[in-house]
Here is the input.
Amino acid sequence: MSTATSTTGNAHAHQADLFQGEMFDNTIKILETAGNAVGCDPNVLERMKRPKKAVIISVPVRMDDYRVKVFTGYRVQHSSTLGPYKGGIRYHQDVTLSEVAALATLMTFKCSLLNLPLGGGKGGIAVDPSKLSRTEKQNMTRRYTSELGTLIGPDVDIPAPDMGTDAQTMAWIMDTYSQELGFAQPGVVTGKPVEIGGSLGRAGATGLGVVFIAEKALEKLGMKMAGSTFVIQGFGNVGTHAAINAFNRGAKILAVSDVSGGLHNPNGLDIPDLLRYVAENKVIKGYTKAEPISNEELLQLNCDVLAPCAMENQITEANAAKISCKVVVEGANGPTNNAATKILHERDIMICPDILANGGGVIVSYFEWVQGIAHFFWSEEEVNNRMKGIITNAFDKVWELRTEKKLDMRTAAMGQSVRRLERAMLLRGLYPR
Here is the structure.
């Protein structure tokens, strides 16, 4: 059973209540600030503030003990002005409609900033995936996909992995969608295993993009990647790939963290050795070649690059004054709130915002989509080189606007994105008039 809620025709106050939440509210404030800074048409700006469609889904699942448990799922489609909706699906116990709406909105502006022919979408299920067996997770994924029905598709809305999901999850979604249509539809998702149409380079793309952006930011400060120091919060898919790519380029990784805690070594962590430990033990806790450190202490370590690659709202007004880095590169979505952004900007700490810094994943997802349509696949080197070209070009455009308007990087990134989206929306017009 699914319930579709369209924002069209609802009272503005009701819309605010529907999506209200810290991350969504922060996103809208960033949008308003950037829109005003670049002189965006106020009618267009008003349209950008609300998702086009939001769906709440009941997902009944027969558990291994034969009980039926009903989970709540969501899919939010923010804008399709530039192309089909695109965005991940996350499985996490704290998933809410507001969070998913914020992430869908950010995805619209990320795709616009990166000059991709895609719009913003996002989905999720409120569940702790670590407490599900493989069979339960598969059953839940397939039922969720079935309930979404025609809301997703290669030309409509193309999901991808996010927190709590992976290539296997995408394979189940693809198979379910294909079974219901009667033939294979690899284009319905990205982030699939390579064996069924996935792209080489997709798994590590977001983390590699974080490193490309860190490298550009350090250049602007007259520094090089080799010999720089990194602190990485989060050692999941994004954090691990950021760590290994920075390490391979000569950076010293002072600290990392995951759900089990943090590790600090002032002489630098041996990232390949730590990855071998995690492969055997699943988490970083217990690794003996570094000292334990709390999340609070990790964020305040003195370093060149702080890369928050975990959850949203990690850097706030409560700790922004204690951050001790030269650059914040946001591998996660929304890790720094608006109040903290202002404090960091006043302290002359550069922020490379999420819609720019973690764009590597959606760029390579776009490549996967294109390769699937063409039935012609690229080498990993070609994928990485093309991704680097797009994400570093976006950085240069943001830097130009930052310099021209004397803006902070977050406002400049959103402003550059708003400019492209505004032009497209004005050209397409409003239907019906």
